[in-house]
Amino acid sequence: MKIDNNNHFIFSGHDTVELAKKFGTPLYVLSEDIIRKNAIKIIKAFEKENVDFQIIYAGKALLNIAMCYIIKDLNMGLDVVSGGELYTAKKASFPMEKIYFHGNNKSKEELNMAIDLGVGRIVVDSEYELELLNHLCIEKNKKASVLFRINPGIEAHTHKYIQTGQEDSKFGISIKQAKNFIEKARNMQGIIIKGLHCHIGSQILEEYPYKIAAKIMMDLIKELKIKYKLVIEELNLGGGFGIEYLKGDSCFSVEKIVNEILKTIQDQSLKYQVKIPKIIIEPGRYVVGNAGITLYEIGAIKSIPGIRKYVSVNGGMVDNPRTALYDAKYHAVIANKVNEKEKELVSISGKCCESGDMLIWDIPLPVCEPGDILAVLATGAYNYSMASNYNRIPKPPMILLKGSKAEIIVKGETYEDIIRNDKIPTWLLE
Ligand SMILES: Cc1ncc(COP(=O)(O)O)c(C=O)c1O
């Protein structure tokens, strides 16, 4: 590899070629400075508006113990969706009262864990869960503070696999059934109704779906007040703030979107004479997406004349399944040739035994050679958290950058880790 430090890609103040040399590849690189900058931008946007609010980080985007420490330090809440995420938060001594427990099929064990640990809010997703939760709370002589996940019937303009707000969805209670559902919960001994929740999708780059969702939820708040004299104290509008994956992606301003959402809520509360609830949002991607990159080493390169040039890297859908799953788009640079002119159109493929194992289709890059370091950008969200061991490939390590410091926060897996839970049945040993 040609060594020319001036031609190296610098991420969050660090030479990525040096990082690859020191920690190996594939490598997840996460910048604490960028995470903090993103989070503070949202917090400031709310502070400016003078409302009661809470920002919750959606742990599904990327969670590990170090992330919990950062989120705790930022004084944010945490959205978890499984016993595993809750356990991670517990191990990081995350304040349980700031945890929101989501999920469309929480198990009895997970609900018991949440009740025993005293999580702040359980976001009830179905009638089955409501009854189970109530029953478990009564058994323990405890009460759970809940939000109801309402499906407001909105389609946010994004890829269909990440639309979760339309009526035909596995998540939440249909807006049409919401009143009867909530009426039922009012009479439950183990349930304290705190508020409503909705999440209308992900990678949303425009404000109007949020405004429509806020209006629909305020309508429901008004109806609940009129019909049952029920006061809704909290309104959680979910996550979904989009980020810039490709140069030129339209990117909204957080200040503008927060301002528009709050204005809609304020207008509706005035019109309906209902108290403005505490406003909660739970961004994941916006907090960590552009704070992460993944470094790979280029290996096999194959040209099919007149068709395509495949450039393979030493990772792929195992560490980033989003292109294969959602046809997600990414930008990348050759970290050791960052200032060189783009000379060829190539497609970046992974190393898995799967034709769909692609990271990027048709990207212009400088001439790629085996041994070059490829940096795929904006991989902080839904990469590590969605990684698998397909083909028994060990998961890469993750490092955290802060100022000039760089340390491992998740160790890379070894082949021993891969077989750790394997057992040989007795009859095969006979
Ligand atoms: C209920 C809920 N809240 C928050 C999020 C976070 O979304 P994003 O990372 O797009 O902000 C999701 C993502 O699927 C979600 O389902």
From TrEMBL:
<dbReference type="InterPro" id="IPR022644">
    <property type="entry name" value="De-COase2_N"/>
</dbReference>
<dbReference type="InterPro" id="IPR009006">
    <property type="entry name" value="Ala_racemase/Decarboxylase_C"/>
</dbReference>
<feature type="binding site">
    <location>
        <position position="354"/>
    </location>
    <ligand>
        <name>substrate</name>
    </ligand>
</feature>
<feature type="binding site">
    <location>
        <position position="326"/>
    </location>
    <ligand>
        <name>substrate</name>
    </ligand>
</feature>
<keyword id="KW-0457">Lysine biosynthesis</keyword>
<feature type="binding site">
    <location>
        <position position="322"/>
    </location>
    <ligand>
        <name>substrate</name>
    </ligand>
</feature>
<feature type="active site" description="Proton donor">
    <location>
        <position position="353"/>
    </location>
</feature>
<comment type="similarity">
    <text>Belongs to the Orn/Lys/Arg decarboxylase class-II family. LysA subfamily.</text>
</comment>
<keyword id="KW-0663">Pyridoxal phosphate</keyword>
<dbReference type="GO" id="GO:0008836">
    <property type="term" value="F:diaminopimelate decarboxylase activity"/>
</dbReference>
<dbReference type="GO" id="GO:0009089">
    <property type="term" value="P:lysine biosynthetic process via diaminopimelate"/>
</dbReference>
<dbReference type="InterPro" id="IPR000183">
    <property type="entry name" value="Orn/DAP/Arg_de-COase"/>
</dbReference>
<comment type="function">
    <text>Specifically catalyzes the decarboxylation of meso-diaminopimelate (meso-DAP) to L-lysine.</text>
</comment>
<dbReference type="Pfam" id="PF02784">
    <property type="entry name" value="Orn_Arg_deC_N"/>
</dbReference>
<keyword id="KW-0028">Amino-acid biosynthesis</keyword>
<dbReference type="InterPro" id="IPR002986">
    <property type="entry name" value="DAP_deCOOHase_LysA"/>
</dbReference>
<dbReference type="GO" id="GO:0030170">
    <property type="term" value="F:pyridoxal phosphate binding"/>
</dbReference>
<feature type="binding site">
    <location>
        <position position="285"/>
    </location>
    <ligand>
        <name>substrate</name>
    </ligand>
</feature>
<feature type="binding site">
    <location>
        <position position="382"/>
    </location>
    <ligand>
        <name>pyridoxal 5'-phosphate</name>
    </ligand>
</feature>
<comment type="pathway">
    <text>Amino-acid biosynthesis; L-lysine biosynthesis via DAP pathway; L-lysine from DL-2,6-diaminopimelate: step 1/1.</text>
</comment>
<dbReference type="InterPro" id="IPR029066">
    <property type="entry name" value="PLP-binding_barrel"/>
</dbReference>
<feature type="binding site">
    <location>
        <begin position="282"/>
        <end position="285"/>
    </location>
    <ligand>
        <name>pyridoxal 5'-phosphate</name>
    </ligand>
</feature>
<comment type="subunit">
    <text>Homodimer.</text>
</comment>
<protein>
    <recommendedName>
        <fullName>Diaminopimelate decarboxylase</fullName>
        <ecNumber>4.1.1.20</ecNumber>
    </recommendedName>
</protein>
<feature type="modified residue" description="N6-(pyridoxal phosphate)lysine">
    <location>
        <position position="60"/>
    </location>
</feature>
<keyword id="KW-0210">Decarboxylase</keyword>
<keyword id="KW-0456">Lyase</keyword>
<feature type="domain" description="Orn/DAP/Arg decarboxylase 2 N-terminal">
    <location>
        <begin position="43"/>
        <end position="288"/>
    </location>
</feature>
<feature type="binding site">
    <location>
        <position position="382"/>
    </location>
    <ligand>
        <name>substrate</name>
    </ligand>
</feature>
<feature type="binding site">
    <location>
        <position position="240"/>
    </location>
    <ligand>
        <name>pyridoxal 5'-phosphate</name>
    </ligand>
</feature>
